[in-house]
Design brief:
The chain is mainly alpha-helical. It is 35% helix and 0% strand. The protein contains two helices and no strands. The mean pLDDT is 79.
């Protein structure tokens, strides 16, 4: 026995559930997208430590925030700390 509203035939009998499924589906897709974006674009996450042991140095003059009013990061002071004593 399947719950009502879980199959297309029973969903036709309960059309008020369609917006619920759409909203939940959009929430799931949005959360998966943002989690993948954080895993691939965030300088705190490294997938290959031997190739790039200091991944935060790669983002010294790049935007990695989701939204920022600053357009050109090459002219600003880098928020990444410099631990090297060159």
């Amino acid at each position: 026995m399947v719950m009502q509203g879980m199959t297309p035939s029973t969903l036709k009998k309960h059309p008020a559930l369609i917006p619920l499924y759409v909203c939940v589906g959009l929430g799931v897709v949005g959360s998966i997208y943002y989690t993948l974006r954080l895993a691939t674009r965030n300088p705190d996450v490294t997938w290959n430590r031997s190739k790039n042991p200091e991944p935060w140095q790669e983002y010294a003059n790049k935007q990695y925030k989701f939204y920022s009013p600053i357009r050109d990061y090459s002219k600003t002071q880098s928020p990444a700390p410099n631990y090297r004593e060159d």
